[in-house]
Design a protein that fits this description.
The protein has 2 domains: about 170 residues, 3-Layer(aba) Sandwich (Rossmann fold), CATH 3.40.50; about 120 residues, no CATH class. The protein is about 35% helix and about 20% strand. The protein contains 11 helices and 12 strands. The strands form 3 sheets. It has a 6-stranded mixed β-sheet with strand order 2-3-1-4-5-6, with helices on both faces. α3 packs across α4. The longest helix has 18 residues. The protein starts with a strand and ends with a strand.
Length: about 350
């Protein structure tokens, strides 16, 4: 039996080209295995072979979608694979959107089966989970070892046109498709088993998970800004020059608290962005574009607001988990309340 032919798509980082400064890298095709493709090839064994790897920068793809899609589709069509694999993208937002977009194009326009991998909170997950198989991954590349065998196994099934089982069996994210099947044990026995495990404090998996909606009741509107203190908070990663607290460019584990007493303008000499999820050129040239201290000072002088709080809080939203974000917010929200701040302007990118 001949091996299945695989084309693998990765971004500029996993291709070893570089980070954000090379995110405008145009699509190119390389023969054989590149980067994480080595792990995929190992998981395939003698059943499949990566014949080529398509590389494209995240910024280039997302800023030139039509051109990137056309170029990459031509590359894939020429290779004539049995399966197209993108990523995995973990929780990298732009990478995830690129993986989902090109997978959808390959599936719809070339009629080739596709698969990718993402963390459940990746924006690409919600956009594409009902259009293709997306293997559930951990937030970062630390989960590569766990993700690759699942992606490889499911890819082989897709390439071989085998029947695909339920998401809990195959490891992909639920895609709103329900299929009838027969369980080994009757429902009453399964229900009692789950109840016993729950009462004993043992882990169990419900067969019908309920959605968990995070509802936040809005505070009353601010009617008079002229007498209150307003603070600035950002997920855009604006930090003093040199990033003194070493906030990570992705999947941040901390936030920064910085004093802006007497600061009227965030200049290129004094402030920069630590964010790794967008082109930093414009933010580094003028950080007020992300954290508008200059405009807030104007409002302060003109009496539109009472005053600007003397501290701002900042972190990086790129790949940062919801759990960490809630923890950060709870901490600095209490600090803002203690400082009698009545309103917050939260900026992003």
């Amino acid at each position: 039996m001949s091996k299945f032919r695989v084309v693998h798509y990765i971004n500029q980082f996993y291709a070893g080209i570089g980070g954000e400064e090379f995110a405008d890298h145009k699509p190119e095709v390389r023969e054989g295995v590149v980067g994480p493709g080595m792990a995929l090839a190992g998981a395939f064994g003698d059943k499949a072979e990566i014949i080529s790897t398509v590389v494209c920068g995240d910024s280039f793809f997302n800023e030139n979608v039509a051109e990137a899609k056309k170029t990459i589709l031509d590359m894939v069509k020429k290779a004539n694979p049995d399966i197209f694999i993108a990523g995995p993208a973990f929780n990298a937002g732009r990478y995830g959107v690129a993986c989902g977009t090109i997978c959808e194009a390959v599936k719809e326009e070339l009629n080739i089966p596709v698969i990718t991998g993402m963390f459940e909170e990746n924006p690409g997950t919600d956009m594409f989970k009902d259009k293709m198989y997306i293997v559930a991954t951990k937030p970062s590349a630390a989960g590569m070892r766990d993700a690759i065998p699942v992606i490889a196994a499911l890819a082989l099934k897709l390439a071989g046109k085998e029947k695909i089982g339920a998401s809990v069996e195959e490891g992909y994210l639920p895609n709103n498709t329900r299929v009838n099947f027969f369980e080994k044990e009757r429902g009453s026995r399964r229900a009692v088993d789950m109840l016993i495990k729950k009462m004993a404090g043992k882990p169990f998996v419900t067969e019908y998970p309920m959605p968990d909606f995070d509802r936040v009741e809005p505070n009353p509107a601010v009617n008079d800004f002229k007498s209150i203190t307003v603070a600035l908070v950002t997920s855009g990663g604006i930090v003093p020059k040199g990033n003194p607290d070493h906030i990570e460019s992705s999947s941040a584990s901390k936030y920064g608290e910085y004093d802006i007493t007497g600061v009227n303008d965030l200049t290129a000499e004094t402030y920069e962005t630590a964010h790794g999820g967008y082109d930093p050129v414009y933010a580094n040239a003028d950080a007020d574009r992300v954290l508008p201290v200059d405009v807030m000072r104007d409002f302060e002088r003109e009496g539109i607001i009472g005053k600007l709080h003397n501290k701002f809080y900042t972190t990086v939203g790129n790949g940062t988990s919801t759990k960490s974000s809630k923890q950060f917010a709870a901490e600095y929200a209490q600090k803002l309340k203690n400082d009698n701040v009545q309103a917050v302007i939260l900026t992003s990118t």
